[in-house]
Amino acid sequence: MLKGLIFDIKRFAVHDGNGIRTTVFFKGCPLKCLWCHNPEGISFKPQLAFYENKCINCGECAAVCSAGAQKITAAGHIYNREECVLCGGCERACLGNALTLYGKEMTVEELMPILLEDKPFYDNSGGGITLSGGECLCQPDFCAELLKNAKENGLNTAVDTCGFVPRAAIEKVMPFTDMFLYDIKAIDESVHIKCTGQSNRRILENLKYIDASGKKTEIRYPYVPGCNSGEAESIADFVGGFKNVTGVRVLPYHNYAGSKYLSLGMKNTLPGKLPDGEEIKSIEKLFKSCSLSKKVQ
Ligand code: SF4
Ligand code: SF4
């Protein structure tokens, strides 16, 4: 039976497509964006996060961990990642909500009842479900199966993708996808490589393919000062000619994810400079002047 590796499910999402939606976050991403605000979605493997500020030193984790990865010492709580076999036992036992296992295998049969729970809200708001990540299209067979089931149950479907995936992955989900949310981080290839570790050629080609297929697509531009903040005009030029692009949504960079990097034992790559309100207004004005600001559908 097909299984997806999921790290979160967010109900009542209002920024992941039209109306009220439930968003499913898939683990694993082929890009390494410096500003990533979901670092728990980068690795293709499950990870245990330890939020030290929430730990009350109760020792429940050490009591249940047969691998010896959790220890309470005179110096405080020690979590040893090398010893951990990611069984999730300590997450269930933790009294302080200080431990979260990101990345759980789920079947379509397990996910569908959760996704159908809010159908009345989707129906009243023009919403539905969104597959996101990480990069959901790195698990294309599972996504196609999930989207197919969602369509059979009368749900509107959206796929939120970075576009850095094989064309075959897009072809698989296309018949069951009503709308794409598509990240464009930079048009200048060298800027893209510097910020994400990968070329953008495949991403731009895949967007042409999706547009030619006739599917509605919302472009998302994460605006990060000092990284890709000079790319707005090129993005407006590039997407301006597409027939089925509904608009560009500017996503202002924030650094709220700092504690997540720490809790996962990952190197924090978040840039230091935050955008100010005036900058964002002027970028949105630019897209508006090209009739590309986010349109409500
Ligand atoms: S996930 Fe399992 S092995 Fe890892 S620390 Fe927790 S209880 Fe121990
Ligand atoms: S169970 Fe949770 S709160 Fe208790 S010591 Fe372990 S991490 Fe801390």
What is shown here, in short?
With 297 residues, the chain is of the alpha/beta class. The chain has helices at residues 60-64, 89-93, 108-116, 119-125, 140-152, 167-173, 189-196, 201-213, 232-240, 258-263, 277-289; strands at residues 4-13, 21-26, 47-50, 70-73, 76-79, 99-102, 104-106, 128-133, 157-161, 179-183, 216-223, 245-252. The strands form three sheets. The chain has an eight-stranded mixed beta sheet. It has a two-stranded antiparallel ribbon with strand order 3-6. A two-stranded antiparallel sheet has the order 4-5.
Commentary on this structure:
This protein folds into two domains: 4-44 and 105-289, TIM Barrel, CATH 3.20.20.70; 47-102, Alpha-Beta Plaits (2-Layer Sandwich), CATH 3.30.70.20. 32% of the residues lie in helices and 23% in strands. It has helices at 60-64, 89-93, 108-116, 119-125, 140-152, 167-173, 189-196, 201-213, 232-240, 258-263, 277-289, and strands at 4-13, 21-26, 47-50, 70-73, 76-79, 99-102, 104-106, 128-133, 157-161, 179-183, 216-223, 245-252. The strands form three sheets. Strands 7-1-2-8-9-10-11-12 form an eight-stranded mixed sheet. Strand 4 and strand 5 form a beta hairpin. Helix 3 crosses helix 5 (140-152) and helix 5 packs parallel to helix 6 (167-173). The two termini are 37 Å apart. Residues 48, 64-65, 67, 69-70, 84-90 line the site of one iron/sulfur cluster.
